[in-house]
Amino acid sequence: MTFYKRNLPHWHPKGAAIFLTWHLAGSRPKDIRKVTATLAAGTSELSAGKRFVILDREIDRAAVGPTWLRDPRVARCVVDTLVRGAIVLGHYQLHAYVVMANHVHVLITPSVP
Fold first, then answer.
1. Region 103-111: what's the mean pLDDT?
2. Residues in contact with 65: Cβ distance below 8 Å, sequence separation at least 6, in sequence order
3. How far apart are CA 56 and CA 58, in angstroms?
4. Could you tell me which of 39, 30, 23, 17 has the C-alpha nearest to residue 100?
5. What secondary structure letter does DSSP report for 26?
6. What CATH number should be reported for the domain whose range is 1-27+66-113?
7. What's the chain's average pLDDT?
8. How confident is residue 33, by pLDDT bands cut at 50, 70 and 90?
9. What does the alpha-carbon distance between residue 91 and residue 71 come to, in Å, rounded to a whole number?
């Protein structure tokens, strides 16, 4: 299993599927902790998973920053690249993906380190 840490720890178990999310620069609220706290007001301590869901729903609203992925031509570039990585390059098995207005979710199983 490989491990590395940037802003969050990342574990990559060999042969396991990986769920990836990325967003357009500037599409997340500047003060994420404040947004999460405001949206979760009145609830008890939130787990990391619940914080992720709250933030993901906020990003889904696409109320902040660029929304270039709404343009079908731009979204098609992302989809074509995902498919190319799976079929042409064989870097991963592509199980599922969704292209949102300002972010992308992907479920893959890597075929290469």
1. 94
2. 24, 25, 26, 27, 28, 102
3. 5
4. 23
5. T
6. 3.30.70.1290
7. 83
8. low
9. 27
On whether the pTM is more than 0.90, the answer is no
Instruction: Find all residues with CB under 8 Å of 68, minimum gap 6, and list them.
Output: 24, 74, 102
The residue type found at 113 is P
DSSP per-residue codes, 59-84: HHTT-SS--GGGSHHHHHHHHHHHHI
**Residue 10, both tokens:** 């990342």
Q: Where are the domains of the chain?
A: 1-27+66-113, 28-61
Query: pLDDT tens, 60-101?
Result: 777 778 899 999 999 999 999 999 999 999 999 999 999 999
